[in-house]
Amino acid sequence: MSRKMAVLVITGKDAGGFLLGFLFLVLLALVTGRAIPALAPLHPALVGKVITIDPGHGGIDPGSHDDGSVLEKDIVLEIARNVCYLLARARAVPILTRHGDWEMSPIWPDEKTRHRQDLAARIHIAHRTNSDVFVSIHVNKIGSKSTSGAIVFYSKDKPESKRLATCIQQAIRDVAPFRGRSVLEGDFYVLNAARLPAVIVEVGFISNPEEKELLLTPSYRGRLADAIFRGLLAFFEGS
What's the pTM? Predict the structure, then answer.
């Protein structure tokens, strides 16, 4: 049986949100082989909210890597799946832009380059599904081996995106603290093109040896996913 899953297209938000969230939970359980637990305690602020979760990169684009087998595209896919799992349990409607190791460019061929097509497709999915927010998950890499922690980017002059970034950073800083400003303006295509609150969450640095080892740990990826979930909950609760 193919492990690919079609993107779910939503045309409205109503009581069907509960059913759609539950269906996603079933589909994700089938793909990952995870059991379906009892639904989580009700979070009224999340019920029926359509939330696009975007694992960055994929396919021929590995993202950041350590010149070995550690690839950003693999790390962020599992974190994104975990976030969607938590959202579905909470009766939200998660939209996962990619469910496996592939790029998104075939969805939006109108742009001139494959890279721009890939990015445009991701934000197109959020628009097409009438999502309430868009969260793209990434892993960082720089020349310094000492820098670690999570950073959240938002687009300039978009106050709701900044509020979303702040909510997520306040939740994730206990898991992956960053020394310095960790909620930053970012001039990135998906953020600038988004017609909804949108952020990029850089969950850590694989250039930091200790953090790279943590990012390879399922329990740590689960903690990051839980923090992103809690940040989303705080945003919809009006924090």
Answer: 0.84
